[in-house]
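Is this the right way to post structure tokens for a design question? Let me know if I should format differently. Anyway, here goes:
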């Protein structure tokens, strides 16, 4: 009974910025990590960024290192992805992911990000 709702996607020019948000709701008790993935049609879903509750420990894909920043609002079960200096190859559907201490995993519905050259 966990729901993740992403927002903030859209169409931007190369070099522009977007901030994605993902708000968790429902039967959430203990979050181990929240993360962002992305997927383009016909390709495998790709890891983008992750932030763990303990630490916290943050990990980025090499392709977005230095351009994207992941953060969390722990009081609101919300994770953000600040995306700067966007490139056309960043175009994808971006998915929020939540993993709880039980190892139950949940996905959001996805939000489209389109970067034009």
């Amino acid at each position: 009974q966990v729901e993740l709702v992403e927002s903030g996607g859209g169409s931007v020019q190369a070099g522009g910025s977007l901030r994605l948000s993902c708000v968790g709701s429902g039967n959430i008790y203990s979050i181990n990590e929240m993360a962002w993935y992305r997927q383009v049609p016909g390709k495998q879903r790709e890891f983008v960024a992750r932030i763990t509750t303990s630490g916290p420990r943050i990990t980025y894909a090499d392709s977005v290192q230095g351009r994207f920043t992941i953060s969390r609002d722990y009081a609101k079960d919300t994770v953000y992805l600040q995306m700067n200096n966007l490139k056309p190859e960043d175009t994808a559907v971006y998915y929020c992911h939540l993993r709880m201490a039980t190892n139950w995993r949940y996905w959001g519905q996805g939000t489209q990000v389109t970067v034009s050259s």
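Format looks fine. Someone answered above. Worth noting: The chain has no helices and eleven strands. The chain has a mean pLDDT of 97.
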